[in-house]
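Table S7 (text form). Paired inputs.
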Amino acid sequence: MKPEISDASAYENGWKHRLYLLALICLLIPLLGGAARFSETRTQENGAIEIRNPSVQVSGKSMELTLPGSVRGLAPRTPVSVSFTAGPEQGDALFLHPVYSPLDVYVNNELVYSFGKEGSYPAFFIDPPTGAFSVPLPRTGAAREIRLEYRSPAARNAISLYAPVIGSQADILSFLSAKYALTLILSVCFLLMGLLLLTASLLFLRFERRGKLLRYPGALVFCAGLWQFGENALSVYLTRLPSLLYPLAFIGLFTIALPLYRQTMMILSLQKSRLLRFFLSLLEASVIVALALQLFGLVPFSRSLYWFHFLLPLSLCVLAGRILLEAVRTRSGYAIGFFLAMLAIVVGALLELANYYFRFSSITSLFQICLLLFVLICSVLSFGYMSLIFMQTQRNIEMQREIDVLERSIDAQKEKNNLLLEHAEEVRRQRHDLRQHLNVILSALEAGQYEEINAYVRELTERIPVNRDVTWCDHPVANALLSYYVSSAEAENIQCEVRAQIPATLPHVSDGDLCVLLGNLLENALEACQRMNEGPKKLTFRARVQGELLAVTVDNTYDGKVRFYRGKYLSSKRDAPGTGLQSVTSVAKRHGGEALFESGGTTFRSNVYIRI
């Protein structure tokens, strides 16, 4: 669906869009500044010390390596030793961050901790998950010789080594917070935002099918939050659930492009695009295959990651290119805005991928920052789109009500026409019978049978049907509506009083507008009387022309219950302004008039005037 917006709506959305961009810039400046500030490692301020240049041995051979770093070209389970000396004044805990590697910790040649033993994680993982924990160091008066014995991953030919951190538990927590807190906070915010949007989509579906559009941004943000939360060292350290966070992180990453494709294809009506359908199917199949391979212990997520490092950026670039092509082809401002939002995702994904392999920046939340930019831009587009949907839905309700009123007017007019046809047939039949009656009377006169003539005429008079058809006013549409609703009201034992002086023609008011105006007033009055459980029910209708104005007043009894919000009466059927009253007000304003509604006691009054 490609929404079309009128000039007035486009102008209104334009200033709202500029306001959002200004707010966006104001938010991004402190956000980026905060990201840069939190990326610094403050080892001396909080008391924690990183060991960046320990002694490293691979299979017994020494090598120089500055941590964090990696050693490549290793056979599975190659022993890698990291050793250093820690003085007693340097704290009483050691923070370690092994990545898919079993680890034994020795202090003065004594084993004090083991991580990644078989049985401590699911067998189908192949390698242990990434850990983040602190090991209490024994208190001794002399320096401690610390040796970390790693064994390289079985599923990768490289091992990643992070710098050990020494300090008190509080110092270690402060160190991790300074380094990973921003990413953790953003990931939690994304998780909550995703849940909120997913919940909102379920609630919105009760009123509008297009509410499922909220499902895809919610799933996108939730997947991003899941990925970042699962791989965050601080979240692993705080939750102590590395085996659970390991699959959650990869599932969030692998599925992140799926809701993007779904949302784009639905909003821009690209469901028939073969290219997008191919990549969507490829992404879905890749996720299923990766899950199956991990579950059966054949290929872990950490190796499937290399395929997704190629597939995800490629699919995002293809999606952005297709959106750009659609924007150029249709010249749709909505498609252009969506392309700009998509561009932020593509740039973020490419920067995150480059940083993963080349480590050109210590900022670990590049993709999250770009995703936040995407969410902000999409919020502007979604706000405009959902507002348009809401307005269209309201207009459809109004149009349906107007159609119902017109149909009732047509039914009333058909009923009146049927009565006229019946009357015409009755007159034709009576004209035929009249000849016979006159012949009888003429014969009786010639015979001087005056008493018989008197009795016969009396009998004929009693047999003449009484015309019960009432003409309320000269205007045919108004008369038909009044006939219909008065008949319906009397069937409900509602007392009616009608005084209508509406001329046969109203030059500047169409029959449709007059039908909507009178029909909605009478419909609301009738429904209000029907809802009454006790007390007399009464409906009073008055209409007359005064100069250039047609004034209409409708009084009806009601149960005394009204809901009023922001100057408007709410519908008795839903939590929204009454559609009938809105239609009446719209017709009145369109014809240079006004509609006023008053409630008090047990009477509801509608006063409307229009220029004719």
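Next pair, protein 2 of 2.
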Amino acid sequence: MDYKKYIAERLNVEGIPGEELASLLAVPPDTAMGDYALPCFKLAKRLHKSPVIIAEELSAGFPIDEIVTEANALNGYLNFRVGKKSLVHGFLREFLEKKDMFGASAEGNGKTVLIDYSSVNIAKPFHIGHLSTTVLGGALYRIFQYLGYNVVGINHLGDYGTQFGKLISAYKKWGNKEEVERGGIHAVNALYVRFNEEATEEMEAEAREYFRLIESGDKEANDLFEWFKSLTLAYVGKIYERLHVTFDSYAGERFYIDKMQPVIDALKEKGLLVESQGAQVVDLEKYGMPPFIVLRSDGASLYATRDLAACFYRKQTYNFDKCLYVVAYQQNLHFKQLFKVVELMGEEWAKDLVHVAYGMVSLEDGAMSTRKGKVVWLEDVLSRCVEKAKAVLEEKNPALENKEEVAEKVGVGAVIFGALYNNKIKDIVFSYDKALNFDGETSVYVQYTCARCASVLEKLEGAPLGDAFVAEPTPQETALCKALDGFPVAVKGAAEGYEPSILARWCVDTAQVFNKFYIDCKIVQAESDDIRALRRLLTLAASTLLKRGLALLGIGVPEKM
């Protein structure tokens, strides 16, 4: 039940809608004060009264019932207490009614969200710097789907530029088809690195010529390019499978080459394109930004030109309600410029373009600096974490079956959770030991809690059960119920803020509340059949919603650990 909405609808505040009041309600840090609180300081200016008087007047007029049993004014706050039976029994009835879709909604019906994420470069291995964009975009994809939106995941491939001419040149000089097929993307990347290490002016000119051949449709050059692309997609596909990430489109930069001219023509028609040092640019000086370069002085397009063409193509093709770009914060200026240009072109949907910026990921030893040659491949991080998970599981539970499968879920889940648990804009220092801590703020802790739930439910099979809706809830049961009832709010908040960390934190916080309930309350050996039935339902709800929370983040849950 949405208690904030229920309370807000019963607050009679002239000129302030219930929806706004509901957004002001918060959970007090000290539950002894109440279950929800309205800080009346935020209403003082609009109502021209002191917060203390507002709280007292609203308290006097609030209709008490079996759902909201108290409404007390204290120091400018209006504190509400929800009846334990109403809270626990109401939640469980709603959970049982909606079970498979608890927390889902129809708010996105008829709306489309595009998410541009991961965006790997052809012929280059997947390094740890791609982790955040990939798992953040994947989590948002699933969360928006759960809320009823039509979601389109786009992998905007880096598949255009002179580097592909260099690659063809390197392959023709030093490459061997069998060796490249056997070595895959790493063999391709090694050729590219060697070219850059040994490049002469003559080699650079040759590379430019090979790129020109790609652009002009030369069969041999394009066949080689498509081969490199297929090797790349086969390689990243395996990593995406491990991360539970999917895409609906792999349309990259090259796809938009023939779609740029209409946009360039539109810029000219609207008088937005001006010459600057021989280049064609959109002047953004009055908006506090450098010029947005559309065509270089030699007439060549840039990444920005193709991004602009992609904006218009996506709007025309998908008619999106939101288009999210999950790209590191280093690209803040680029997206501010891009969105401003679309706005200056008179497109009202410019407001629907959103840059979901995130911080960088590094390892504890500082590994990630490409300039220092300390790049770490994501596949190596995943495999190392899985191996460490297997060692921990071997130590904690030597008799555990399917250790390989369990270690994969635990290890990969730890990497995903490590990238999603903190606010997305923060830089992350990934630690294998911290990520695999069974007692920390980790996915492993939540997975272990789910396994504990599964064990309890297994023991309860065939046990005598009474009427769960007769028992009087204890404080621990009430606290667990309140935490579980926050799942829909966490999912919605994660979508609204493009912030999966809200859901990740809900998972950890709720697991902590469940474990306190597990320690303090007898479940299998409950005092009565009715109490056992109530606690079984609470355990089932905890198991179901914690699994679902992790699944939305892209993390699997073993039945036993």
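The domain at 112-257+303-356 is CATH 3.40.50.620 (Rossmann fold).
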